Amino acid sequence: MARLADRQAFERYAAEAQARWERLWAGDHWVISVGISECSIAKGALETYRHLELLLAQEGIPATLRRVGCAGWCFAEPFVEVRAPGAPPVVYGNVTTDRVPDLVHALKRGEVKGEWALGARADEPFAGVQPLSQHPFLARQRRLLFADAGVIDPESIDDYIARGGYRAFLKALFEMTPDEVVAEVKASNLRGRGGAGFPAGIKWESGRRTQAWPKYVVVNSHEGEPNVFKDRRLLETNPHLVLEGLLIGCYALETPYGYNYIGGEHALAVERFQEAVRQAYELGLLGDNILGTSFSCHIRVRTGGGAYICGEGSALMYAIMGQRGQPRTKPPRSVEEGLWKRPTVLNNTETFASVPSIVLNGGAWYASLGTEQSTGTKLVTIQGPVKRLGVAEIEMGMTMRELIFEVFGGMREGYRFKGVQTGGVSAGPLREDQLDVPVDFDSLTELGGMLGSGGFVVFDESVCAVDFARYLMAFNRYESCSKCNPCRLGNPALVEILDRIRHGYGRPEDLDIIREGSKHIIELSLCGLGQVAPMPLLGMMKAFPEEFDAHIREKRCPANVCPISEAVLAIVGDD
Amino acid sequence: MANRIDRDERIDLTPLLEVLANRFRPRDDQEAYELIVGACQEAQRLYGWVPPEAAQAIADHLGVTINRVYGLLTFYADFRTEPPGKHFLWLCHGAACYVMGSSRLIELLRDRHQLVDHGVSLDGELTLHVFNGCLGVCDLAPVIQVDHHEYWGRLTPERLEAAIEALKRGDRLEDADGTAG
């Protein structure tokens, strides 16, 4: 493949890619797509793919077999999308290897396996199968970043271009000045999706104002929190979208140096993003003098070694620089002095992925989505015993109740809702009576929760609030980088007190000690991890005071989880 | 554990040197520093851990000090500086797995197999790594990734026990990901 020399060459290439895409979907032959992503591989998607390949050949169905990315419905993996000649594509869920023969035989007979179908990609019901867009998981979603998830092959730049990819980058490159790009991002009021919610446009603007050279643009795909998996799904399912956002970021900052820092454990995300970068180089969308302009851009992919703290901005930069990932005091902020002591603009994966649609449709259009203070869409993941587990993309402002009980289907059989932990390990939980809060940056914070990176953990009656608080605190203890004392010594102390309570030796004054100690950690810690580390514990104490009381005063664990109840059981057993 | 460190077998560095020569070619000092972690990850992929010889080879190749390499190896949780057991259990202890009961699995491994985080079982068969982040396959929670490719999902202590038995026998576990029921 030759490098594309200029804009016309790209337009020709895009037209060809689009024509190929349309021929594929002309409707006169079989097209069968299997979703291959980390979560579906875990559930046997590769075996499903191999079985399909074999059986289709045996049965003489001349199908084009494709690999696509994940579409967010973890609960239905592995999924297979079948387009029979003359029929709309039908998506089947949970197609494990044992279901493949039945499915292929049904297809051979020209039937639709209605009971396994998630939906048909059509506006009207087809052969008793409802339109996919009306599936309860998808009906309330608004998909911008995940629009092509499960539709395009993540390892094919042609698929991405055929669906309108790299248009935003071309628009920025040929029709806009860097200042105009920044102005659009600012107008969109896009706030950082990593958790802090700092407006991306303002960050980019201060990055532009700084005079030092060179500058760097960094994507933070570290995602080391214990409760979220949206960034890696995005990278697995549409890596070019993130790459395009990063390219636009580099153009806006007028710098040729872009980085993507990806958590080392997200192997498939790393692999697919690297492949995307390779393809973009091959096509001339990366490299020197892109499409005949004076703009050059080089992207380096760096992987993390499994330290949560490296998601913090300054720690991440030290990690890229080959040092131990420990944060430093600010100021200077990283837009003034970041990577290699040069101005660095760092944003979350999802933030960058939102940029192409902003450039393409304008900041005002993006600002019209969501709520006034939290614009746009948000990728959210819900974990725990809910019926439809996965990644959803919603407009900001949907209530937590709608999110949990409509999009994610509510609790599984036999589980009763007790609470939902928000903001990962950095905030408190919500109780049932607080669920009518809108999911956006500010409303959740008012209730002691946090939007964070959009990972929510639903838990049921079998989870003890004290034990859960201990789990979250133990995470922060383990992941503390040990640079500053309040965090390094304070968190273990809190875990110790909690362990005392869990074992039945809690004293009423322990709660005051926790509050006092937490105050020190929050006020004196150096970085964001320490400053919010005690928040989940304080949140649990606020939301479930009666459980802490039961442990301390009545020496019992209502959920029968803590060691305190084992001791009681042992005594009863001796009788 | 001590006898595992005084090992007789020598590490064959050829594959690592090949990877380093082909894919780790820094153009300047900055890039050399940036590549250390990636090179260590390659070494761990090849050997299952980062042996001292490999760490030295990486330091020599990239022109950095061995202290720098060990500074990173001991900071980042993913790296092992001691040889692992025959099978590698990567136990997800993310919030989803915790809510679904991963603590009970950790207790079982500790009490019945004397296996703790980053440890090797006495028979040298199993290595455990408790992963604090999220493996991202929450539908299977609580979940363990085995030897980097297979998943045991929706585990209970009983199923984990059966899975370990099967693994030691060299069998595959029926319905390993736990989705059939």
UniProtKB/TrEMBL annotation, chain A:
Gene Ontology MF annotations: 4 iron, 4 sulfur cluster binding; metal ion binding
Domain NADH-ubiquinone oxidoreductase 51kDa subunit iron-sulphur binding: from-to ranges: 466-511
Pfam families named among the record's database cross-references: Complex1_51K, NADH_4Fe-4S
Keyword Iron-sulfur: yes
Organism per entry: Thermorudis peleae
Family according to the record: Belongs to the complex I 51 kDa subunit family.
Keywords annotated in UniProt: 4Fe-4S, Iron, Iron-sulfur, Metal-binding
Protein known as: NADH-quinone oxidoreductase subunit F
KW Cell membrane (keyword) present: no
Superkingdom per UniProt: Bacteria
TrEMBL record, chain B:
MF-aspect GO terms: iron-sulfur cluster binding; metal ion binding
Stated name of the protein: NAD(P)H-dependent oxidoreductase subunit E
InterPro entries in UniProt: NADP_DH_HndA-like, NuoE_dom, NuoE_N, Thioredoxin-like_sf
Pfam families for this protein: 2Fe-2S_thioredx
Keywords per UniProt: Iron, Iron-sulfur, Metal-binding
